[in-house]
Design goal:
CATH superfamily: 23S rRNA-intervening sequence
Number of helices: 4
CATH architecture: Up-down Bundle
Strand content: under 5%
Radius of gyration: 15 Å
Shape: elongated
Distance between the termini: 14 Å
Number of domains: 1
Largest sheet: none
Order of helices and strands: HHHH
Number of strands: 0
């Protein structure tokens, strides 16, 4: 069992989820149960799956949860494109978020490779 709070990828994805929550407060109210809810759930799924996977007994199990987190990161990446094109966020707001989610995806991939190599 690992302490997920010590994992850099968990810390970055947690901070990213907080940013998404703050950002989505400005989304149209009619999207509260649509895009707002979906992007929030996907963003929180990343650190949640890292945390859950870190509590599993095997590296194989942990790797599976990292894979789920990576899928959620790709979902967030798409939803950011969607909300930009729907003009819920500006290009200026989009760029750093897009950069950060792609960095998180790279970190997840590297970490998963490392976990798999050590199992």
């Amino acid at each position: 069992m690992r302490d997920f709070k010590k994992l850099m990828v968990w810390e970055r994805s947690h901070k990213f989820a907080l940013v998404i929550y703050r950002l989505t407060k400005q989304f149209p109210k009619e999207e509260l149960y649509g895009i707002t809810s979906q992007i929030r759930r996907a963003a929180t799924s990343i650190p949640t799956n890292i945390a859950e996977g870190s509590g599993k007994n095997t590296s194989k199990d942990f790797s599976r949860y990292l894979s789920i987190a990576s899928g959620s990161a790709s979902e967030v990446e798409y939803l950011l494109i969607l909300v930009k094109e729907l003009e819920f966020i500006s290009e200026k707001d989009f760029q750093p978020l897009d950069t950060e989610i792609n960095e998180i995806k790279k970190m997840l991939n590297s970490f998963q490779i490392k976990i798999n190599a050590n199992s």
